[in-house]
Write a structure and sequence with these properties.
Length: 594
C-alpha cells in the first residue's frame, strides 16, 4: 500500500475535483436513504387504512376513502421519484468529479513515465524488454486509474451509505438491525475471495493471450522463413497447443464467474429471509410496524451494492498497489548519462580518444582497450576491423550512448561529459548499423530532426544520399508511406534514407556505422563524393568492413579485439604490410572470385 502514497501528490493537485466529489457522494447517499423511509410511511398508511376501507363496504363513503387513500399513495410515489431524480443528479456530479479526476491523473502519470523513459540511457533499454516498458505505461497505469477513480469513489460511497443506513436501521430497531447486517461481512469476504480468483485467472489468460499474439506476430513476420523451410504444419501444431492452453484457462475463469452471481444472490436472499423472520417476530411483539420491514428490505437492497463494492475495491486496490510498485521501480531509475549545467557551444568537431577503455555494463564484455586517436575538423576518419572488434562501440561512445569506463573522450578539447548532452547530440549526425525508419512518409523520415518540413531541403538531402531517383520513381514520391503501414524499401534504399536523415541535420560531426553495406560500390562512391562536399570543414567518422569505402579517408584506424593495431592513411597502412594489407588482399581476392 505504501507504493500508492506516490499518488497523493496528484490528489493535492486535483483537490478541487476531489473535495466536491466527496460532497456529492454524501449528498447522493442522503437522497438514496430517504426513499426507504417514505416507503415505510406509505406501507403503514396502506395497512392502517385498508381496514377502514373494508369497514365502509357497501357505503357510498367508501368511494371517498378510496380517493383520499389513492391520492396519498400517488403523492408518496411522486416523492420517491423526485428523491431518486435528485440522487441521480448528485450521482452524475459525483462521477463527473471523481472519475474525471482519475482520468486527469492517468494522463499526467502516463506523461510522467514516458518523459522519464526518454531521459533513461541505452543501458536501461538493454536491461528491459519493450513489452515490459509498454506494459508499465499502459496496463499498470490503467490499473492504478481503477484505484484512483472507481476505487476511491466506491470506497467513499460504501462508507457513507453504510453509516447512513446502519444509523437509520438502529434508530428503528437494534435487534433487527444487528440481524440484518450480520451476513454482510460474509458477503464482502466471499466477494473479495471470488474476485481475487477471477483477477488472478484473468491475468493468466492475459499472459496466454500475449504469448499467443506474440507467437502469431513472430510467425507472420518470419513467414518467408516458415514457407521456405516448409514448417507450416509444425507452426500450426504449436499454434494449436498455444490456443488449447488459452482455451483451458478461459474455461476455468468462466466456471468461477458462473458461481459468482448465484453465491451473491443466495447470500442476499438469506439476509431478506432473516429480516422477514426477525422483523415478523418484532411486529408481533409490537416493537415495530410492518412498514419497518418494507423499509429494512429496501435498506438491504441498497446495502448490497456497497458491500459487493467493498470486496471488489479491496482486490482492485491491491492490484493497483502492485502496479504502482512496478511503475515506481522505473520512475526511481536514474539515467546513467547525465549532463548537469553542461557547456553549450557550436562544436568545431575536433575529436580525441585518450586511452579509452570500455566494458559493457550489461554483459561485462570489454569492447575497447586503451584506444587513442584524434581527428581534426574537416577530416574524415575511417574505422575498419573484423566483426566484434569494437567499431560500433566507438560510435556509441561518440554519440554518448554510454560513458567510458576508462580514459576520456574529448570534443574540441573538452571532456564529452562536460558538454550539454542535447546541445551536443543536436550537432551530431548518426546513421546506425541497424537502420530504423518510422512508419511514416519518406519525407517525414528524412526530416525527422526538424519541426517544420522543408521540402527543398529534404530533396537535397535525398540527392546527397543518392536515393532521390528511387524516391521519385515511387507513385507517391516523398509522400510514400513506409514501414508497417506502407511499402517496404530495399535494404540499400533504407540505408540511404537513413543517411539522408543524418545529412538533413547539417551536423558538425557525422558518424556512419557500417551503413553502406547494402549499397553497391558505384552508389557508395557517389555518396562519399557528396559527403566530401556536404561535410567540408566538418568531421566525418566512417565505420566499414570494406576497404573500398574508406581508402580515401584522411585517417584510418584498424581495430582488433578492442585495440588499435594500425593507424595512418591508405598508403602508409599499405606500406606497413600488416593487418590492413592482409585485409586489402583478402577483399581483392573475394572481389575477383565473384
Ligand atoms: N549493447 C551491448 N551490450 C553488451 N555487449 C555488447 C553490446 N554491443 C556490443 N557488445 C559486445 O562488444 C563487443 C564489440 O562489439 P561492437 O558492436 O563494437 O563490434 P563491431 O566491431 O562493431 O562489430 P560488427 O562489425 O559486427 O558490427 C562484441 O564482443 C559484442 O558482443
Amino acid at each position: 500500500m505504501k507504493h500508492l502514497a506516490y499518488l497523493n501528490k496528484f490528489f493535492y493537485k486535483y483537490r478541487w475535483r476531489l473535495i466536491p466529489g466527496v460532497l456529492f457522494v454524501v449528498a447522493s447517499n442522503i437522497f438514496g436513504v430517504l426513499p426507504a423511509q417514505v416507503i415505510r410511511v406509505a406501507f403503514d398508511l396502506v395497512s392502517e387504512n385498508i381496514d377502514m376501507y373494508r369497514l365502509y363496504a357497501g357505503f357510498s363513503e367508501q368511494h371517498v376513502i378510496y380517493d383520499v387513500f389513492g391520492a396519498g399513495l400517488l403523492l408518496f410515489g411522486a416523492m420517491v421519484l423526485v428523491l431518486a431524480l435528485i440522487r441521480g443528479l448528485f450521482l452524475f456530479f459525483m462521477r463527473q468529479t471523481i472519475i474525471l479526476m482519475s482520468r486527469h491523473i492517468e494522463y499526467d502519470l502516463k506523461n510522467e513515465i514516458y518523459t522519464h523513459y526518454q531521459a533513461l540511457s541505452m543501458a536501461f533499454y538493454r536491461r528491459h524488454n519493450t513489452g515490459d516498458l509498454m506494459n508499465r505505461v499502459t496496463e499498470d497505469v490503467s490499473r492504478v486509474r481503477m484505484y484512483l477513480g472507481p476505487g476511491i469513489m466506491y470506497s467513499l460511497n460504501t462508507v457513507v451509505m453504510f453509516v447512513l443506513i446502519v444509523y437509520a436501521m438502529l434508530t428503528v430497531n437494534v435487534r433487527l438491525a444487528v440481524y440484518s447486517i450480520l451476513p454482510m461481512p460474509i458477503l464482502a469476504a466471499v466477494i473479495y475471495y471470488v474476485n481475487n480468483q477471477i483477477e488472478s485467472r484473468s491475468e493468466k489468460i492475459q499472459q496466454r493471450l500475449s504469448s499467443l499474439s506474440g507467437f502469431v506476430q513472430e510467425t507472420f513476420s518470419g513467414i518467408r522463413v516458415v514457407k521456405s523451410y516448409v514448417r507450416e504444419a509444425y507452426i500450426r501444431k504449436n499454434f494449436a497447443a498455444e490456443s488449447e492452453d488459452y482455451k483451458t484457462h478461459s474455461m476455468g475463469l468462466a466456471k468461477v464467474q458462473a458461481l459468482f452471481y448465484p453465491i451473491i444472490l443466495l447470500l442476499a436472499g438469506l439476509s431478506v429471509v432473516i429480516v422477514l423472520y426477525v422483523g415478523g417476530t418484532e411486529v408481533m411483539r409490537g416493537n415495530i410496524s410492518p412498514g419497518n420491514i418494507a423499509e429494512f428490505i429496501v435498506y438491504l437492497s441498497q446495502l448490497m451494492f456497497p458491500v459487493m463494492a467493498l470486496g471488489w475495491v479491496t482486490s482492485l486496490t491491491q492490484r493497483a498497489a502492485a502496479s504502482q510498485k512496478r511503475i515506481n521501480e522505473f520512475l526511481h531509475e536514474q539515467p546513467e548519462i547525465i549532463s548537469v549545467n553542461g557547456i553549450k557551444k557550436t562544436i568545431d568537431g575536433r575529436i580525441e580518444f585518450k586511452n579509452v577503455s570500455f566494458t559493457y555494463p550489461e554483459t561485462g564484455i570489454q569492447a575497447l582497450n586503451d584506444v587513442s586517436f584524434n581527428v581534426e575538423p574537416g577530416q574524415m576518419l575511417a574505422i575498419i576491423g573484423r566483426t566484434g572488434s569494437g567499431k560500433s562501440t566507438i560510435a556509441n561512445l561518440l554519440m554518448r550512448m554510454y560513458d567510458t569506463t576508462g580514459g576520456q573522450v574529448l570534443i574540441d578539447g573538452i571532456p564529452i561529459q562536460q558538454i550539454d548532452l542535447n546541445n551536443y547530440r543536436s550537432q551530431t549526425g548518426f546513421v546506425p548499423q541497424e537502420v530504423f525508419l518510422f512508419s511514416d512518409t519518406i519525407a517525414n523520415n528524412i526530416a525527422f530532426s526538424t519541426d517544420i518540413l522543408n521540402m527543398p531541403e529534404v530533396e537535397q538531402a535525398a540527392k546527397d544520399a543518392a536515393v532521390y531517383n528511387n524516391i521519385v520513381e515511387l507513385e507517391n514520391g516523398f509522400q510514400t508511406l513506409i514501414g508497417e503501414r506502407g511499402i517496404t524499401l530495399s535494404g540499400g534504399q533504407k540505408q540511404r534514407v537513413s543517411i539522408a536523415r543524418a545529412i538533413m541535420k547539417h551536423p558538425q560531426v557525422l558518424v556512419f556505422d557500417d551503413c553502406l553495406s547494402a549499397v553497391d560500390t558505384r552508389t557508395e562512391e557517389e555518396i562519399l563524393q557528396n559527403l566530401g562536399r556536404v561535410m567540408n570543414g566538418k568531421t566525418s567518422v566512417i565505420i566499414s568492413h570494406r576497404i573500398s569505402t574508406i581508402k580515401n579517408a584522411d585517417k584510418i584506424i584498424v581495430l582488433d579485439e578492442g585495440r588499435i593495431v594500425e593507424q595512418g592513411n591508405h598508403d602508409t597502412l599499405m606500406e606497413l604490410q600488416g593487418a590492413y594489407l592482409a585485409l586489402y588482399e583478402k577483399q581483392l581476392l573475394e572481389e575477383e572470385s565473384v
